[in-house]
Every structure is written in C-alpha cells, then in structure tokens.
Design goal:
The chain is α+β, with helices and mostly antiparallel strands and about 350 residues long. Helix content is about 30%, strand content about 25%. The strands form two sheets. Strands 1, 2, 3, 4, 6, 7, 8, 10, 11 and 12 form a ten-stranded antiparallel sheet that branches. The protein has a two-stranded antiparallel ribbon with strand order 5-9. It contains ten helices and twelve strands. α1 packs antiparallel against α10, α2 runs parallel beside α4 and α2 crosses α10. It starts with 10 loop residues before the first helix and ends with a helix. The structure holds protoporphyrin IX containing FE. The site of protoporphyrin IX containing FE has 28 residues, from β2, β3, β4, α4 and α10. Protoporphyrin IX containing FE binds next to β2, β3, β4, α4 and α10.
C-alpha cells in the first residue's frame, strides 16, 4: 500500500524529507555539513527565537496565482507553465534570524514560493533580493556563520574573527557590497528577487536549457532615499504589502536569463553575464496577504530542490546543501510552535 503524502498531517514536513532525500541522493559523494551544525550556527550568530525561522525570521504569508507563458512552455514541460492559473503560497521576509529586524535597513528581502501543481506535485523556491549569495560553498557558509557568533560577554561578534575569515574568504563580502550600493526597497512588491542558483529547463523532447531566474516587479523596482527610509521606521513592509495588494498592484514577471555554453551555472556567487537573453516564463500575481503571524506559510519550509518534472537542479554545492538544514529548521520551529 502506498502512502498518500497529502493525508499526512504535516505535508510540509513530508515534502522537506522527500526533497532532502532527493537532494542527498543526487548530491556528490562527499559528506555534507551536518545540518544541525548549521542551525546551531544560525542561532549563535542571530540569536535564538523559539518558533521563528532561523533565517528570514520576520515575514508575512501571502497567496497568489501564477500563469505560465508560451515561452515557458517552449522551454520546459513543467505543468507550472501550462497557461492555466496555478495557486501559489508565498512568504515575503527580511533577511536574518531576528523577528524584529528593521524594515528600513539596506539588508536582504526574500520571496519564498510554493507552486501547488496538478496531481499533488509541488515546486518550492526561496529567492533573495541580491543576484549573489553570501558564500560560495557550504563549508564557507558555515565558517562565515561561525565567525559571526555572538560573544557571550559583549553580545557582539568578535571583530578580529570576522575580519580574519572574510580576509581569507572574500566571496562572503560580495553580497554586502551589493546591498550597500542599493537603496532600501520601498516595498516587498517593488524589488527584484533572484533564485541565485542555476537550474535546467527540460522540454518534452528532453532538450535542456540552463539558466538563472529572477522575479521582477511589474512596473519596475522602487527604492527609498536615506531620509525616506528613516521616516518609514522599522515596521512598514507588511502593511505596505497589504495596501498594495488590496489595490491590485503586486505582480512579478518570472524571468529566466539563458546561459550559453561555457557559462558558469554551478555557483551562487557568479551571476550570468548581463547581456544574456532573458525570457519571461510567466507572471505571479499576489492576491491576498495574511494577518501577522497567521497563514498557510507558517508550517512550510521552502526547499529549493523540491522541483517539478521539467526543471532540474544544477551542480551548485550550495543548492544541494539547503534541503537538510531546512528540514531540521522546520522541525525545530514546529516543535516550539511555529510563529511566523
Ligand atoms: C548551505 C546553505 C544554506 C543554508 C544552511 C540555509 C539555511 C536556511 C534556513 C535554516 C532557513 C530557515 C528555514 C525554515 O525554518 O523554514 C533558511 C531560509 C531561507 N533561505 Fe537559506 N540557507 C542556505 C542557502 C541559501 C541560499 C543560497 C539562498 C538564496 C537563494 C537562501 C535563501 C533563503 C530564503 C529566501 C529563506 C527564507 C524562506 C522562507 O521565507 O521560509 N538560502 N535558510
């Protein structure tokens, strides 16, 4: 007798386990960083807040609809691109482990998505407001997090340790440099969100096109001046999103930048060259936003290797390394009582 995952109380936990198993079975044979070590390192660097995500802690659930385009259908057999509306469970968040992180700082914003496809198939992803991630490999990421651990006495990271690690691993500074050169986003609905990893789009005949995606707001991005950001205060993004969605104004084009032979698609710190052709795979429209601390995203962990038939992972080691810590993170949150 087969087990129906939809009847298991925590479908999201089952999904995380299935995606973890898939990611691990397709991963290279070298050992992965222990996922609990990642979770402990997040807690030591960002603080521990029961029930909250250890990364992207401050966030809000939303639901929307995705409609795939003819260009999407031409590139991939994934049912997400059929052209029929696909329900999506979204989560917008601010980077870091602090549930009270300020909305008016030059930091990361996130857009996590779950496409609920026909036949119980699910496509999950977690996208960020920078074209690069803050580390090139899982080993470098755990090293960076451990260098940022808060000192028991000062409650701050040890600046010597932070500097020594960054000096030896300059890739970890790329993302911060990107954010420093950008304005504070005016809205969760007015900033680009990159997938950062390479993925293969496979058509019905088995032809594969590699690419990297970005969700770009319809009508363009919008930033705040430093004075405007100060005046907005630390908590405006969730209400701003509710107002814009009520006015029917939050939608994103799901764009894929097409890789050419020889392009690097296995690194989360190496964007494709700017001049690579971009195609629009479809449009995501946000339909409603949940009240604070409620909604369908609370018990979901967005595992980026939960992919539909017709989309395949690249060999980026950061991609394969995500599933297990996300599953452990979800387990900790559910055990404590999921809060946001
Ligand atoms: C080894 C590498 C990584 C580890 C260990 C890691 C770990 C985590 C953990 C533990 C969470 C909280 C999950 C939960 O409680 O549901 C999280 C959230 C998140 N991560 Fe990562 N992460 C990694 C790489 C990345 C990369 C490369 C990206 C870039 C696209 C990324 C984007 C996100 C986003 C957008 C969220 C928030 C998702 C949400 O709203 O639920 N992560 N990460």
């Amino acid at each position: 007798m087969s087990i129906d995952p939809l009847k298991i109380p925590h479908k999201s936990l089952w999904l995380a386990c299935a995606a973890t198993a898939a990611a691990l079975s397709s991963a290279p044979t070298q050992a992965q960083v222990d996922p609990t070590r990642f979770l402990d390192a997040f807690e030591r660097a960002g603080g521990k807040f029961d029930g909250f995500r250890r990364s992207g802690a401050k966030g809000v659930c939303a639901v929307g609809e995705f409609i795939g385009s003819a260009e999407g259908r031409a590139l991939s057999s994934a049912s997400a691109f059929s052209g029929k509306p696909v329900p999506v469970i979204a989560r917008f968040s601010v980077g870091g482990g602090n549930p009270k992180a300020p909305d008016n700082a030059k930091t990361q914003r996130n857009l996590a998505l779950q496409f609920d496809l026909p036949g119980g198939e699910v496509w999950q992803m977690g996208n960020i407001s920078a074209p690069v991630f803050g580390a090139a490999t899982p080993e470098q990421f755990i090293g960076r997090l451990e260098s940022l651990a808060l000192d028991a006495e000062t409650k701050k990271p040890n600046p010597d340790k932070v500097k020594a690690f960054a000096d030896a691993n300059p890739e970890v500074l790329l993302q911060g440099k990107y954010f420093a050169g950008q304005p504070v986003p005016a809205s969760f609905g007015k900033v680009n969100y990159w997938g950062v990893h390479g993925f293969g789009f496979v058509d019905a005949g088995g032809k594969k096109q590699w690419g990297k995606w970005v969700f770009e707001p319809v009508g363009g991005t919008q930033g705040l001046s430093d004075d405007e950001a100060k005046a907005k205060g630390a908590d405006f993004l969730a209400d701003d999103l509710r107002q814009r969605v009520a006015a029917g104004g939050v939608a994103f084009d799901f764009n894929l930048q097409l890789a050419q032979p020889g392009d690097r698609i296995d690194s989360a710190v190496s964007p494709l060259p700017d001049d690579r052709k971009k195609v629009t795979l479809g449009r995501l429209t946000i339909k409603s936003v949940s009240a604070d601390a409620t909604g369908p995203c609370l018990t979901i962990t967005y595992v980026p290797t939960a992919l539909p038939k017709g989309v395949e992972p690249s060999a980026d080691p950061m991609l394969a390394a995500r599933a297990a810590p996300y599953a452990v993170g979800l387990g900790r949150r559910l055990g404590e009582g999921a809060k946001q």
